[in-house]
Design goal:
Structural class: alpha/beta
Distance between the termini: 62 Å
Helix content: 25-40%
Order of helices and strands: HEHEHEHEHEHEEHEHEHEHEEHEEEEEEH
Strand content: 15-25%
Shape: globular
Bound molecules: ligand LLP
Number of helices: 12
Largest sheet: 9 strands, mixed
Radius of gyration: 23 Å
Number of strands: 18
């Protein structure tokens, strides 16, 4: 299966309907493709959603109904998981907290709720152990190498801040023992956009780490990083191959330890990435030398991936009646409203503006930026004092707002002067 070129008719109709009733810009997610992604990963014993990709509580609630577990990386993400109905502190370990450091407030909360902590630094183990002996922990290991769709999404190797360096495993185990922590499992996540060659290397590293353990563990986690197609024709990850490689590792781990071992996977992008669009209104169309700039009412304050990583997102234009804009194509850059030259959706890594051959739209038409269901809304900001925009869910023909538009009042209201101290 590969990603198709055209937007489906249901999505097209939903975008135009939503543009009329809630105004632009907005995020629109589709529930069914998310459910389909969950079905594709069923072979794993545990699918743990890395909610940093899309942490809307309604998305989390829908995934929980499918028995998807959740990962939290901050106190805010823990509270979101609770709001969505996740039950921490049970045998099922529905919520795990993963980080390289733990702040005081999060530390208190994971202890209170009995949330297992996936520790990415020895200091984290020591700080947790000092106040909560016996607490369940995972060790997140940096196997010594990594891989990412961009340098900024590579989370392994000597230049990465993530994980416990692989040579420090024995020291970490000593900390576990010193504080009588309960070691649940080993975890590796080497980056987003990992390929099969790295997959082989990371599963081999997992095995060699397990062989250095002097105790049994009940689980291993393959981390996330499954890529998704961002362009028409780009292939999907071969989940069978992915699972087969990890399952082989799991079986070898079980043979080494002599006990059963759960195999978890921790995807973010894979579950939601292709299931969301950002819809915006075209407010200006201008010619700059031989190039055309199409300016939208959404920019990198909404979708930051292009400016941060030079990420490609397909963009299509619709008339407000919902038809695809037709006509001869010309070189077009698509940009946003921010007072900043880098506020361009069509750019390569390093900020080089690119031009796409697209039919020229008119002011008032809609632009649909595709495949933004992961790391879209969660990475938005209030830059240029722009309020956060609504999120909508399309499920079985029903279109609902699942996050309201932030008001400018809400945006300013925290700026009250405190008492001097
Ligand atoms: N597990 C851990 C420990 C992670 O750090 C991450 C992502 C994931 C799982 C999920 O990775 P995924 O399956 O979504 O690739 N903002 C970037 C991605 C940063 C990912 C950070 N960690 C982007 O827009 O591409």
């Amino acid at each position: 299966m590969s990603r198709s070129d055209a937007l489906g008719p249901t999505l097209l109709a939903a975008v135009t309907r939503a543009a009329r009733s809630v105004g632009t810009p907005f995020w629109l997610y589709e529930a069914e493709p998310m459910r389909e992604r969950v079905r594709q990963l069923r072979a794993f014993d545990g699918i743990r959603f890395a909610q940093k990709a899309n942490s809307n509580v309604h998305v989390l609630r829908m995934l929980r109904a499918l028995n998807v577990l959740v990962d939290a990386v901050s106190l805010g993400e823990i509270e979101r998981a609770l709001r969505a109905g996740y039950e921490p502190g049970t045998e099922a370990h529905e919520v795990v907290f993963t980080a390289d450091l733990i702040e005081e407030a999060a530390l208190a909360r994971v202890i209170e709720l009995g949330i297992p902590v996936n520790c990415g630094s020895p200091d984290m183990l020591a700080q947790l152990g000092a106040v909560a002996p016996g607490h369940p922990v995972w060790l997140r290991l940096n196997p010594g190498f990594g891989h990412g769709h961009n340098r900024k999404t590579n989370t392994g190797g000597p230049s990465s801040k993530h994980g416990i360096w692989h040579e420090g495993l024995e020291d970490a185990l000593r900390l576990v023992d010193a504080h009588r922590l309960n070691l649940v499992g080993l975890h590796m996540h080497i980056g987003s956009g990992a390929d099969y060659e790295h997959l082989r290397r990371v599963s081999d590293s997992m095995l060699s780490a397990v062989r250095r353990l002097d105790r049994p563990i009940g689980a291993i986690s393959a981390g996330g990083g499954l890529s998704v197609p961002y362009r028409a024709g780009e292939p999907e990850v071969d989940i069978e191959q992915y699972y087969a490689a990890w399952n082989e590792t799991r079986l070898e781990v079980e043979r080494t330890l002599g006990n059963e071992v759960r195999l978890e996977i921790e995807p973010g992008r894979y579950l939601t990435g292709n299931a969301g669009v950002l819809a915006a209104r075209i407010r200006a169309v201008k010619k700059v030398a031989e190039n055309h700039f199409v300016l939208l009412d959404a920019g990198f304050s909404e979708l930051a991936r292009p400016v941060l990583y030079g990420s490609h997102h397909d963009i299509c234009f619709l008339t407000s009646a919902g038809a695809s804009v037709a006509g001869p194509v010309c070189p077009i850059a698509v940009a946003g409203p921010l007072c900043e030259a880098g506020d361009v959706f069509t750019q390569h890594d390093g900020g080089v503006v690119t031009f796409r051959e697209l039919p020229l739209p008119q002011v008032g038409d809609l632009a649909v930026v595709r495949d933004v269901g992961a790391y879209g809304a969660t990475m938005s900001s209030n830059y240029n004092s722009r309020p956060l925009v609504p999120e909508l869910m399309l499920d079985d023909g029903r279109l609902t707002v699942i996050r309201q538009r932030q008001s400018i009042e809400q945006l300013i209201e925290l700026e009250v002067e405190g008492e001097p101290f």
